Structure formats: structure tokens, C-alpha cells
Amino acid sequence: MSAESVKVHVLLARAGCGSRRVLEDAIRDGRVRINGEVATIGARVRPGVDRVEFDGLEIATEEQREYWLLNKPRGVVSSVVDPEGRPTVRSLVATTSRVYPVGRLDVDSEGLLILTNDGPLTYQLTHPRFHVPKEYLVWVDRPVPRRLGRELREGVEVDGELLRASSVGTVGPRLVRIVLTEGRNRQIRRMVGAVGLSVERLVRVRIGPLVDPHLPPGVARRLEPRELARLRRAIGAASLSAHGATGVAGSDDA
Questions:
Q1: Which band of pLDDT confidence, cut at 50, 70 and 90, is reported for residue 243?
Q2: Is 105 within the bounds of a domain?
Q3: How far, CA to CA in Å, does 131 sit from each of 134, 199, 242?
Q4: pTM of the predicted model as reported, rounded to 2 decimal places
């Protein structure tokens, strides 16, 4: 671990957080912290020694970054700690690094979840302007009506919020496949409830190009370099196709 210091905006630029001008503006706005203290222009940090945060996300150097894929079981909370003492996704990842879940899955939901200490990647995967698709299998409490796909694609209004699915397909009498490109609070459960159905089981089976049907529940593994490369390409392609889209990053809580 090198103790040679660099200017904080240099470290952030190397981590892919933005251009020098953007980062210096962010520092002036108080969005950057070094070891818990608000950073100043020209401040220096020691990569691998000092803790640097940008918009609340810890920034790791390239050598420190870790990428994990977890098959989250039902009943596990998508957080690092839980005040109620429930098991968390962080407890299922075999690392001492500060990795965080990218978005979240509801405590009763299951399936694929990325954990990483790569702040820029976390931003890209959770901000709606990048439109990275996530695919879910959803079991409902009664036979799927024919109108379901059309209604969810056109959008349903719930509590003043218009919720849409990117695509919907019927897999079985009570099983549907839903793809989302936005991550709003409990989105699938709220959409399905708005059309008179109830979710009995919900499993995320894909994040962008990432799938792993053989990963057992409760098990996490490191992403392979080729998987990470494909994920980055998918983020870039989704961003280009959705150029000009706006929105507020959602919780990605299905």
C-alpha cells in the first residue's frame, strides 16, 4: 500500500468520478470528505491509507476495488448493518473491505445483488439515466390476467407516481418475467398490487448482462474480469440509448 500522497481531485479523477473542473467544483461544494472531514481545494491524500468519500460513497483506488455477485436469500437485509439485528448482505461476503450493496432488494425478495467499493460504478448502476435493465421472476397469488403485460408497460399510477415495466412476459399460470430500467421503492410489488394481484415470491435473475443460475442462495463470488467488462459496456450502451433521460436515483427495491 503506497503512502505517496496525491491531490484529492487526482485520486477522484483516476477513480472515474469526473473531470478536474467537475471535481474541483464538487470539492468547493463540500461533497468530498477526507477521513470524515470536508476536503479543500489542493488537499492531498495517501491512496490506500486515507479514506476519501464523494457524495457519501467511499472511493477506492483501482488496486483496492472489489466486485462481488451475491444471490440474496429471502429474509436478508440489503444493507451493511441493521438496527433490528437481522442478517445483512454484507455478512455474506467474505472480505474485510468496505463493500456496499448496489441498490437493494426488499427483505422478502431474492436474487442477484452486486456489492462493491467502486463508487462511480454504483452511481451508474443506480441512476435512472443509465437505464441498466434488471430482470425478475415474479410469482403471483392467482392466474395472470391477459391484460397484465399491457397495463404494466403502459404504466400504473401508485400514490401519485407513474410506475412502468420495460417488458413483461408470462412464463406460467402464476409466473411472470418483468424487466425494469428504473429502480423505485418496492416498484414491482406496488405495480402488481395496483392491478389487483399480490406478489408471493420475487427473484432477480439478471443485472444488465450478469446472470448466474448456478449461484446458490446465500453465496457470494467475485465478478470475473470479463463479466465486469461486459457490465461496463452495457452501462455505456444503456447511457447512449437513453441520452437526455432525467430522474432521481431510486432505491432499486423490488
A1: very low
A2: yes
A3: 9, 24, 7
A4: 0.77
